[in-house]
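Page 37, continued from 36.
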């Protein structure tokens, strides 16, 4: 199945000059979505995760069914101010700005293997921020995976863990 056929590109969103890769059509097609999750499962299983860490917000859409597919737990990496209790926070740069993510203290146990999941890899900043938080809590970041990789932005080269994507775009 050609999963790229279910990705819509929206120019100049969220601001002029940015080409947004929309996964909504993929989510709306059950057969395509099941195929995507099965393929993502094939990617992450060899990394032997104990947890899938989904990045707020579209990463949750991928991480939740993927955790079920692989048979492991789910951990949320949230934007600032969304988690109760004590949290650890890390800043990162976006293709079009800056932000922060956080996890709850003791969200992982020392030595647990975690795979970080998001919908899209652009510059790699979000995944690196999540990895920093997880490692500070004692996790082993076994890898990272996304539905889409914007290869022309070079994010993969910045990552310090194994990385795989289902779809790659070489130009805007």
């Amino acid at each position: 199945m050609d999963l790229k056929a279910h990705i819509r590109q929206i120019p100049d969103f969220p601001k002029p000059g940015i080409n947004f890769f929309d996964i909504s059509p993929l989510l709306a097609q059950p057969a395509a979505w099941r195929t995507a999750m099965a393929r993502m499962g094939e990617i992450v299983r060899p990394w032997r995760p104990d947890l899938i860490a989904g990045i707020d917000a579209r990463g949750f859409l991928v991480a939740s069914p993927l955790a079920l597919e692989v048979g492991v737990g789910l951990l949320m990496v949230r934007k600032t101010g969304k988690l109760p209790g004590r949290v650890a926070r890390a800043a990162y740069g976006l293709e079009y700005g800056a932000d922060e993510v956080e996890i709850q203290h003791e969200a992982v146990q020392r030595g647990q293997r975690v795979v970080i999941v998001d919908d899209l890899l652009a510059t790699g900043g979000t995944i690196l921020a999540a990895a920093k938080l997880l490692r500070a809590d004692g996790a082993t970041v076994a890898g990272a995976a996304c539905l889409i990789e914007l290869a022309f932005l070079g994010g993969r080269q910045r990552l310090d863990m194994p990385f795989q994507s289902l779809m790659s775009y070489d130009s805007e």
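DSSP finds five helices and nine strands in the chain. Flag for discussion at group meeting. The helical segments are 24-27, 30-44, 58-70, 125-136, 155-158.
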